[in-house]
């Protein structure tokens, strides 16, 4: 299999971490949606990452679609997302919040990196930041309510931990002035536990913040 996309993207990284945890081998195409846009579009018409090319040539795009495929390929006993019940619902809720926060952080970066200073919209940036903080705050409050187990859902690492950690690390590194780690210490603790694991160490690429 071929995984397309750079590991400094939390969306690509959560797929790479999951594949390593599930012992699913893959080749990595470290392609940028900027520099390698046309190359990526040969596989994904949207030119988006992550994109996973299966061994039979089938192409899957969007991290949620890829993660669903991975869990299905290993079966419910090894799947990283709980199969049913409250654990599944809470996992999906936390994952949705984390991905939403990462998207709002990414949009803040785009506003700063690609829009000329005279055309930047401060009110829009403030709204994006408020949305990001709101989503991360919900994850932090969940952890406050259920702070006993070492992981977010139950006694083992799930996709909720993976996704929340990838989003947290991305935002903490890409937006250093946002005070992410200081604002959300419980989430920071979960992320630190995950980042100590080998699949996270292998896929950690510090985010490069464009100047401007």
Fold topology:
Blueprint: E1 2-4, H1 10-21, E2 27-29, H2 37-41, E3 51-53, E4 59-61, H3 63-74, H4 85-114, H5 122-145, H6 159-174, H7 180-183, H8 185-195, H9 198-203
Parallel strand pairs: 1-2
Antiparallel strand pairs: 1-3, 3-4
Helix pairs in contact: 1-3, 1-6, 4-5, 4-6, 6-8
What does this 3D model show about the protein?
The chain has 212 residues and is mostly helical. The protein folds into 2 domains: 2-74, Glutaredoxin (3-Layer(aba) Sandwich), CATH 3.40.30; 85-203, Glutathione S-transferase Yfyf (Class Pi), Chain A, domain 2, CATH 1.20.1050.10. 57% of the residues lie in helices and 6% in strands. The protein is built from 9 helices and 4 strands, in the order E-H-E-H-E-E-H-H-H-H-H-H-H. It has helices at 10-21, 37-41, 63-74, 85-114, 122-145, 159-174, 180-183, 185-195, 198-203, and strands at 2-4, 27-29, 51-53, 59-61. It has a 4-stranded mixed sheet with strand order 2-1-3-4, covered by helices on one side. Strand 1 (2-4), helix 1 and strand 2 (27-29) form a beta-alpha-beta unit. Helix 1 packs parallel to helix 3 (63-74). The longest helix is centred in the middle third of the chain and has 30 residues, at 85-114. The relative contact order is 0.14.
